Amino acid sequence: MTDASPLALAAALLDALEPLPHTERMGELAVRARRLAAQGALRAVLDELENGDPYERRIAVIAAAVGRDAEWIGARLADEDAVVRGHALRAARTLGVPDPAYERAFADAPAAVRRHLVRAIVAGRRTALADRFVITARDTYGDIEAARLLPGCSATTVAALLPELRRSTDCWSSLGHHHPGPLLDSAEEELACLPATARDVWWQDDGHTRGIAAALHAHPDRVLDLLERFGPTRLPAALHGTFGRLVAADPVRVARLAIRPDVCTQLHRALSGTQLRRLVRALPAPLLVELGRSAPDQLPAFLRALPPARRAALHEAVTDGRGEGASGTTVDTGLLDALPRNRVAAVARRLAERARDRGADAAVLLAMSYLPFDEGREPLLAATRGPDADDRATAWSLLVGSAGRSGDPAVVAAVLEDLLRLRNEQDPVRSAALTSLAGVKPALFTDAVEPLLDRVAADAVEARDSSPATRSALGRLAVGALREHAVTGQRDLLNWALRTLVRITGSSGSADFGQAGPDPAQGPGAHRVRSAAALAGSGRGTLRLRTRPGARPRRGPSSRRHVRPPGAVVAGGELRRALGRPERRDPLAPRPGRPRRAGRAAARPASVGPRAPGGPARRDVPAHRPAGGLPRRHTAARPVPGARHALDGRGRWGRALDARPAACGSDRGGGHGG
Questions:
Q1: Could you give the CA distance from residue 351 to residue 318 in angstroms, rounded to a whole number?
Q2: Which strand ranges, in their side-by-side order, compose the sheet holding 541-546?
Q3: Cα-atom radius of gyration of the chain, to the nearest Å?
Q4: What is the Cα–Cα distance from 648 to 253, expressed in whole angstroms?
Q5: pLDDT tens figures, 598-622
Q6: Contact 380/399 with Cβ under 8 angstroms?
Q7: CB contact at 8 A, 210 and 173
């Protein structure tokens, strides 16, 4: 027990807390409150602070909570200060404040305070107190006040009062969470009394569906019963997020519900991809066929949800005597993409024949693009020579897509020879063809097609009507080749990708390397990717390299050693020679005639940048500063940053490489490709 007066103790407490920031202030308050509680002086200090300003009263309620003074906290449950009241209600739940304190606070509290007290009673699961309050509140304040207490009441009380208070209830989610059984009983009773034409209105009420969604976690079988007996025409949006639990509980009943034409139509649209896979893989074959026939426009989604080995059998059973695709579609490309490769050709021939019977020439070409390449090439090539530019653009896209689906590099090479005709085409046609070519798997390109790709890229960039869409498609094609073949040994193709990116930076000012993998500064192809960054130093523009989101770079000396090895600039020199550009000195190599400074240069590989032509070596932007951290007026004078700033892998995205203008040479635009 301390001899100091409560006023002195309170003043000492406030003086100690005054200069501290909030976090340290709360820590110091907790230490001093425990000390005062141990000395038996806490209650006196609290009473002294109670008579102060709002700040002192808020300090007092926190100190009472730390000192575990339940009686003092219970007397402030209905405090006029909302901050003090909130702290008291939160502390009362952990301190075990008795029910009479809530009753005294509830007796003459205003409406706003009563709502806070009701939330605390429900959250604290004070069931007996809620059962007593609900009757008093209904008699004194009306049905709305009483309905707020229902989630905290016992199941017996809820079952007795909910039918009478359902019109005044607004806390359906809480009620469904705490009392799912009585809520479903009330919903079933109410729906049974409604005519069939009025049930949709009941299901459209957001409160009802929120309560059903909350009760679904505890009783999915009973929710299925409600949907089967009294279900709406369309499934409410509030049930979409929790519908996966119904699939997990009973996929057969969910499938039969989806087949019914009068209840919950388009039910499969409420399922995510994972839920749809779980549904179709758990169904027996006859029921799955029936489900596919009930929704022919969703057959591609059902097929994609199945393993490839089961798709052909399901497609044959569903389309037996009915035809392929949705009713309003002549050629369903989604269906053709979902079928296994050995099944696509036969279906595509039938679809092409059906399109001919309907006189849909465009649909015929679309179906023929899914045939074996040799079978569909000639009609598609003939369509690329048509008089209408839009028709030619569509035909080129179909021709390139057909080659990509073949999976044969020789077929892709043959299409690239056909694409040489794009030199004299309009840009919309050229852009459509290159966009389709960018979607071809980069693994189908080899060194043998490098001259063809180079010719196509040069024609696209040098065309007078070349558009941003064309250059964007060409950039995606080059980035895909760079990412795919940086480690495959296809050196000519890699050099083509780099030359194409330089062409694009020369005409548009920027290019994006895309995602380079888990750690682009490592691996057998890392020096080639770093060479691309070094090569950007001779152009005008920006080359960016992104790392995979979430990837962690290697730490320690080994990571710095991989950032800029001496061979990186040597490899860059090989690429520069391939482009006919002058050699660049390795900045890490010892300078002739200055042996004593060679070791110092090698000891600072991350700080010294490449020498500008005819000038001294300059320092790079520090690694902790963003590439755009310097003022714009200094951009031209800033040297080309080293590859480490783009390849160190820090953060989600790699850093940008801002290339300085070339100090020599008058080439501009797309002349970098040679």
A1: 16
A2: 510-515, 541-546, 656-659
A3: 37
A4: 54
A5: 444 444 443 334 444 444 443 343 4
A6: yes
A7: yes
Q: What is the pTM of this model?
A: 0.68
* Cα distance between residue 477 and residue 471, in whole Å: 10
**pLDDT tens digits along 376-419:** 999 999 999 999 999 999 999 999 999 999 999 999 999 999 99
Element (H, E) at 560: helix 557-563
Q: What is the DSSP letter of 52?
A: S
Instruction: Compute the residue count for the chain.
Output: 674
**What whole-number distance in Å separates Cα of residue 659 and Cα of residue 92?**
63
Smallest CA-to-CA distance from 508 within 534, 477, 470 is with 470
The four Cα atoms 281, 282, 284, 290 give a dihedral, to 10 degrees, of: -70
Cα gap 245→258, rounded to integer Å: 15
**204 near 241, Cβ under 8 Å?**
no
pLDDT digit string, tens, across residues 80-130: 999 999 999 999 999 999 999 999 999 889 999 999 999 999 999 999 999
Task: Determine the Cα–Cα distance for residues 232 and 264; give it in Å rounded to an integer.
Answer: 6
Is residue 342 within 8 Å of 322, Cβ to Cβ?
no
Closest CA to 494 of 534, 538, 442: 442
The structure tokens 């309009």 sit at: 426
Whether the CB-CB separation of 149 and 137 falls below 8 Å is answered with: yes
The pLDDT score that the predictor gives to residue 624 is: 40
- DSSP class per residue in 241-257: TTHHHHHHH-HHHHHHH
Picking from 396, 429, 432, the residue whose alpha carbon sits closest to that of residue 415 is: 396
Q: Are 131 and 156 in contact (CB under 8 A)?
A: no
**What is the CA 629 to chain-centroid distance, rounded?**
29
Evaluate if residue 651 carries a pLDDT over 80: no
CA pseudo-torsion sign 357, 363, 369, 370: negative
Of the candidates 131, 142, 195, 141, the residue with the CA atom closest to the CA atom of residue 164: 142
Going by the DSSP 8-state scheme, the letter that residue 4 receives in this structure is S
| Other beta carbons within 10 Å of 585 | 12
| 298, HSE (Cβ side, Cα atoms, 13 Å) | 22
Give the type of residue at 302. F
Task: Name the phi and psi angles at 184, rounded to 5.
Answer: -70, -35
Helix (H) or strand (E) holding 542: strand 541-546
Instruction: Assess contact for 315 and 339: CB atoms under 8 A.
Output: yes
Q: Report helix angle 341-358 to 308-319, nearest 10.
A: 30
Q: What is the average per-residue pLDDT within 659-673?
A: 36
Phi and psi at residue 550, to the nearest 5°:
90, -5
Tell me which residue of 270, 377, 285, 363 sits closest to 324, measured CA to CA: 363
Q: What is the 3-state secondary structure (H, E, C) of 126-156?
A: CHHHHHHHHHHHHHHHCHHHHHHCHHHCCHH
The pairing of beta strand 510-515 with beta strand 656-659: unpaired
